Amino acid sequence: MKDLNKYTTILCTMVLLLIADKAFASTLKVCSTCNYTSVKEAVKAAKSGETVLIENGVYQEYGIEIDKPLTILGRNRPVIDGNYKGQIFTVKASNVTIEGLTIKNIATSYRQDDAAIRVVEQSNVRILNNIILNTFFGIYLQNSDNCVVKGNVVKGQDVTGKNESGLGNAIHLWYCDNAVISNNKVQGHRDGIYLEFVKDSEVKNNLSEKNLRYGLHFMFSDRNVYTHNIFRRNGAGVAVMYTRDIRMEYNTFDNNWGAAAYGLLLKDISNSMIRNNTFRRNTTGIYMESSSRLDIQHNEFEQNGWAIRLLSSCTDDVFRYNNFVGNSFDVSTNGNSTLNLFENNYWDKYSGYDLDKDQVGDVPYRPVSLYSMLVERVPSSVMFMRSFMVDMLDNIEKVLPSFIPEDLVDEKPLMKKTNYDNDRKLAQVIR
Amino acid sequence: MSKIIKYVFYDIIKNKIVLAYTLFLLLLSIGLFNLGGSPDKAILSLLNLVLLTVPLISIVFATTHFYNSYEFMELLVAQPINRKKIFMSEYLGVACSLSGAFILGVGVPILVFGASLTGLYLLLTGVFITFIFVALAFLASVITRDKAKGIGIALMLWFYFALIYDGIILFILYAFADYPLEKATLVMTALNPVDLGRIIVLLNLDVSALMGYTGALYKSILGSLWGIGLAFGLMLLWILIPILSSRRIFSRRDL
């Protein structure tokens, strides 16, 4: 009986596979010797649910409108060259998949936001594994829910000396819910990934670098998850604003340098979680303004100018188990009242002792130095860093604090750096 | 002239103090490189040493040396030798031996443990600072005949450049915080060789912090090769002005 069952299953599968070709609508091939020599023709001729298979070759086309559910599939990376004449794909139907194409050359326009692929008010659109080169906007989703943008490479131009208004965003989402943006590589645009009014979405495993403004930029985008992304060498780092309930984990913020560059800029963010991220060699690791109820844990701050700049408009934020190593300034603030909690962090500048050997320093650590307050007030005095006078002032202030905020203090600084992967025991305690 | 320089040079090397100075620097730098995790951190600690200890030792040693070799100089003046030549050879002898000690004591560990551009700048800064403070020491010693007074002036000069100056500037910056002070700060730092040296090394070390605000301006001015050249040029000026003016005083004065 058991055997029979097995055979039936196999037989059924075979039959299904055989008819699969017919069940799924037919495929329209596009190549220089096929029935269809242009993508546009094929798309026009295709019926709902069919596949347009584009073979290797270069197609000089633009203004392709997809108005029915189709799968546009590229085999051996066909190139669609827009020749700077206008938008290339405009998706005006749901359930469309665009996969495996190389799309390039869209002119910069100050009148309209031309994109390589634009999705207009649809849902379930999947944009997979495309290479998009030298465009104004790369992938532009407007008012479209449940879309997937995955494995694309969006490469713009060298942005040095460019103007913000002359550049578009690599991946741009506007009013899109439940989107998944993953494994993309974006560079050379204004913002790498731009989300506005995007809710319940997931952004993961992306690499965003060398963009003029922000690597990731989102506003009014609640309940999103950002994990395992790398943001590197962007003009101003990553900016997130006016949002609540987000989760940022395992991201790397790297080498965001400049007068107004931040690893992560938080403005009006609340009820969110920022954990296990690495901030390395940024001018400012995290800059926080009017942000409240944030849970900032297990992050690595390495060799930043300012690890954290906490403006006094922030309240109820918790900093725990973070490592601060080799930063010029650990924390700086602009006011005297701070309503945030620092606890159990590791500070490499901490010089206290641990008599009872419980790995927690016996003397509290004040991460804000007098000099960092001074620099906050008089930016030019940054040039006196490492001056003997400054070190002396700092040390005097440490012994007799009078200027630095009284309550911005880590009462239980850790003696050893938290090694998140290996410290099982500590990890259990934390959990 | 080279004969006198040679004589002064060997005389100082025979002196145990320079040997001790070399050993002190050597031990300290090797210790710092082995202690700190990264070479960058060690260079940072060395920077503090270069900016405090090196000026102090240079200025005190040079002043005492000048007064101690007064009789030798009087002897030379009695010979048919140009006074300026005597003075310059004294100066070069002292400065070269001290910077030799510095290069041996700090340069060798840097080369071994953390050879980098920053290390090179640190080394150059140290050498320049030695030359500058020896020049200032000679200026202090030609101003007065009294040894105690001379050493006092030298110490005051060190105190001023290494400590007080930064305090005064910070105070000025704080008091005039409402005005744009970027350019003014730049000029004011140029007026102190210790600050100049510090900034040259700092621009290579704490780059991320310095990239903010004022830092960006500094980086754009001093960060390029041209800017580094300018900074070292200014330091050269800091050698030339005191040494030339003290040479003038020395050659005109009644010994």
Q: How would you describe the overall organization of this protein?
A:
The complex is a heterodimer of chains A (431) and B (255). Chain A is mostly beta strands. Chain A contains 5 helices and 38 strands. Chain B is mostly helical and 255 residues long. Chain B has one domain. Chain B has 12 helices and no strands. The mean pLDDT of chain B is 87. The chains are: A mainly beta (431), B mainly alpha (255). Chain B: This is ABC transporter permease subunit. Chain B: The chain crosses the membrane at residues 18-36, 42-70, 91-114, 120-143, 155-176, 225-245. Chain B: Keywords: Membrane, Transmembrane, Transmembrane helix. Chain B: GO terms for molecular function: ABC-type transporter activity.
Please tell me how large the radius of gyration of chain A is: 27 Å
Which secondary-structure class do the elements of chain B indicate?
mainly alpha
The CATH topology name of the largest domain in chain A reads Pectate Lyase C-like
Q: How many strand segments of chain B? A: 0
- Mean pLDDT of chain B, as a whole number? 87
Estimated share of beta-strand residues of chain B: under 5%
Q: Which chains have the largest interface?
A: A-B, 31 and 39 residues
- Separate helix tally of chain A: 5
What is the CA-CA span between the terminal residues of chain B?
20 Å
Rough outline of chain B = globular
